[in-house]
Design a protein that fits this description.
This protein is of the alpha/beta class. The protein has one domain (6-417): TIM Barrel, CATH 3.20.20.70. It has 16 helices and 12 strands. The strands form 2 sheets. Strands 8-7-6-5-4-3-9-10-11-12 form a 10-stranded mixed sheet, with helices on one face. Strand 1 and strand 2 (11-12) form a beta hairpin. Helix 2 (79-91) runs parallel beside helix 3 (111-124). The protein starts with 5 loop residues before the first strand and ends in a 12-residue tail after the last helix. The model has no long low-confidence stretch (mean pLDDT 92).
């Protein structure tokens, strides 16, 4: 049985009808151009020393409650072979830009191999279709800049895991230290002018507002320029869900109050998924698939030279690899089966499904139903709180001449490169 949370404004958050998004556009029929690139996630290494509480790779994908061991040398990339796979996958989408996302573990623990993949693909990429993103804990950037400055400057986005202030971050990412990350970001900022995403993973013991305060401080120092947060996938339910959801709601209201203040002055805060959700309200659009779109083949994930629909899904869901002749064989796989859970959850009857899309299949397939149902209530609360602020946001958009494209380009464009929704 799930905990039913009764909210003073929205009522029973376990109800599909607790929050109902508008079916039509709230503003105009104005449109905007979206990033249509194909994502290819390459697991560079399985090694990681961060010892994060609730590591998704350990707790969910591997079904192990212990943090991943830094000595785990599995899942190391083979640069020549994996670059070949990426090239062959890119040929399947000749008219699309390709975003190669370096994933881990901690990718910078295999810096030489990661740089080699980049070098091979840059030589292959005569049409300039490729760009590169790296997900990192942010502690190893200085050494990488010294060794491979050209590679580092060519990265389109650095997604850096920061889980709040020094006390909070160091407590939940026990193998890393925020002070060291900040030194690395300071060095990066003197060599690099691109996108740095501050990515927070929220666990029950953490404060969302603490994460936001740290982001806002670094944003003002121009060390980061985008913010995203996501509830950690887990097999275990919340210990005290009632307390957590109340606290989350209060802290999100604080953040939205600041967002509203800033947009009234013509300033769009670069909170990636808040800006994307605002676009959903303004246009009345529907996602049409799960958050990441795994069931419609929007991504390819390459792990140990095998192709998966998602790197965080169990290893038996591989869909192909290179054969001995270096031909890429992708088996037919009905990816729609990955979201069959949406019928059981009642997603299609839920008032926030247009935005949520059923969130992430990983939580249901490799996590637990009880935790997932708790996330359903959190998602309704999240959408409802943003929706309560839409009248003021629309007034500010009109008064300051902010276009939908402005909102998208400010930070919503990065949503597809995150876990998309909280």
């Amino acid at each position: 049985m799930q905990n039913k949370i009764i909210h003073p404004s929205f009522g029973d958050l376990s109800s599909f009808k607790a929050i109902k998004m508008s079916k039509g556009p709230l503003l105009t029929d104005e449109n905007y151009l979206e990033d249509e690139s194909i994502l290819m996630h390459l697991t560079v290494t399985g090694r990681c020393y961060a010892r994060c509480i609730g590591c998704v790779n350990s707790a969910v994908t591997m079904g192990n409650d212990s943090p991943r061991d830094t000595l785990d040398t599995c899942q190391e990339t083979e640069p020549e072979q994996d670059s070949k796979i990426i090239e062959l996958l890119a040929k399947r989408h000749p008219d699309k830009a390709i975003t190669v996302c370096f994933y881990g573990g901690e990718p910078f623990l295999a810096l030489d191999k990661m740089q080699q993949v980049w070098k091979i693909l840059r030589a292959y990429d005569t049409e300039k279709r490729f760009r590169f993103l790296v997900y990192t804990n942010g502690e190893l950037l200085i050494d990488a800049l010294r060794l491979y400055s050209e590679f580092m400057k060519d990265i389109w986005v650095y997604s850096v895991s920061i889980d709040g202030s020094e006390e909070q971050h160091n407590r939940v990412r026990q193998g890393t230290r925020l002070g060291k990350i900040l030194k690395n970001l300071n060095m990066l900022s003197s060599h690099y002018e691109g996108n740095v995403l501050f990515w927070s993973t929220l666990r029950e013991s953490q404060s969302l507002y603490d994460c936001f305060e740290e982001f806002f401080k670094l944003y003002k120092k121009k060390l980061v320029n985008h913010f995203f947060w996501h509830w950690a996938e887990d097999r275990k339910p919340f210990l005290d869900f009632s307390s957590y959801i109340i606290r989350y709601g209060q802290e999100l209201e604080q953040i939205m109050s600041i967002y509203v203040q800033e947009i009234s002055k013509g300033k769009l805060l670069p909170i990636t998924h808040i800006n994307e959700l605002i676009l959903y309200f303004l246009t009345g659009k529907e996602r049409g698939h799960s958050a990441c779109g795994v069931e419609v083949s929007k991504n390819y994930d390459i792990v140990s030279s095998e192709v998966y629909p998602c790197a965080d899904l169990p290893s038996n869901l591989s869909i192909g690899k290179l054969d001995k002749s270096e031909h890429l064989e992708l088996r037919d796989f009905n990816l729609s089966s990955l979201v069959n859970y949406k019928n059981r959850l009642g997603c299609y009857r839920c008032g926030v499904h247009a935005y949520c899309g059923g969130r992430c299949p990983v939580q249901v397939i490799a996590g637990s139903w009880q935790r997932t149902l708790q996330y359903c209530q959190l998602m309704r609360l999240h959408v409802g709180i943003v929706q309560e602020n839409m009248d003021e946001i629309i007034n500010s958009i009109r008064e300051n001449g902010i276009s939908l494209q402005d909102i998208y380009d400010r930070s919503a464009f990065l949503a597809k490169y995150t876990d998309v929704v909280p």
